[in-house]
Here is the input.
Amino acid sequence: MALVEINFDGLVGPSHNYAGLSLGNLASASHAGDPSYPRTAALQGLAKMRHNLDLELVQGLFVPLPRPNPGLLDALGLDARAPTDEAEKRLRAAAWSASSMWTANAATVSPAPDTADGRCHLTAANLVTMPHRSQEWVDTVRQLRLAFADAAHFAVHDAVPACFGDEGAANHMRMAASHDAPGLEIFVYGRPGGAFPARQHEQASRAVARLHGLDPARCLFVEQAPEAIAAGAFHNDVVAVANERVLFTHEQAFADPEGTYAAIRDRLPEAEIVIVPASAVSLADAIRSYLFNAQLLTLPDGGMALVIPLEAWEMPSVRGWLDTMLAGNGPIRQVLPVDVRQSMANGGGPACLRLRVVADPATVDPRFLLDHDRIDQIAAVVAQHWPEQIDPRDIGNEALARTVIAARQSLLGTLGLTELL
Ligand code: SUG
Here is the structure.
């Protein structure tokens, strides 16, 4: 089979909860303390994966990481007793976080046509800005090395040094005439100094480009607009998404929008840039609705579809703009809303939940690829083992910890992924 785009979705883990851990992520802050519904959350994610399969696309899966993370609790000197103060509670909640579900932050991926050695390169993201996310990469890289073990086709790199924050594919866009053609890789970084952290450092992006053996002439390093970060766009994928020749972006996504568009058109003359003006959808509405945290997909017939969260479909300003777009003659021909409300309440839309890898599916470990039967099997494990509800006050509860650990073990047993136990 030829190189195709495979979306690897993160299954929502059994400890999914709302602890309000992400400064600068307005949804995470506003839902802090709410009860969460891990079973519903995981089933919503599986329905999204099924939806992609129904579109005849290749769909993959990454499994949740071990939580509560004993290594983090030990390293912080936290024992099994109930925490005594707010700071300790937050640290304990970090060890319980199911944040690895947002696999757009798992790694940065450069497909084979872009790299010097003709292999697909993946660098795990260190996620150092947020304590609850900084624990992910060590386990993520184990999973990547299993899924992409075929060294003739893949190279998996450890995260770049922790002095440079890296948040993976959420701040990386690839444009190309088609997925299997050489691409233009666009790395978007933030400048620190604002009220909210700039999670992606320029030097991390440059290191990833070097590690992947990219041609400097086909790389762009673009600064994210400080006002976008200040408005809650903690990753570029909250305000822009690219697919093949199309960039779909809010007009306030980049610090120098005109310069960015010109540089893209210069390197990829066939580029089509669909710009949503602030007069139609304000930055605040774009971030609240997650219009741009969409999966922009090429369907088997060559047309493009935008998989958006229901929240975007339901927002009048966004709906008005989408209706106008669909009535026009642009490259995005369909809009497909999906319900991922449990993930959305923590700031993770359809695009956050997936890592895109352009590869021949035959070169990927088949245990990480899905068909309808495997989705049915996973849904049965979720229905049986995932907690129905978690109140943030339950975090630290030993019986709940046992349930969460057993749920993951059952999943790994079902998928035959016992190496990850
Ligand atoms: O890193 N939320 C994640 C959401 C990540 C979204 N990913 C992309 N945009 N690609 C984050 O802020 C919330 C956790 C909590 O509050 O408990 C959280 O980690």
User: Anything to note?
Assistant: The domain at 4-420 is CATH 3.75.10.20 (L-arginine/glycine Amidinotransferase; Chain A). Residues 18-22, 25, 28, 97, 99, 102, 104-105, 130, 133, 170, 234-235, 237-238, 346-348, 352 surround N~2~-(3-carboxypropanoyl)-L-arginine (CB under 6 Å). The mean pLDDT is 97. The chain has one domain: 4-420.
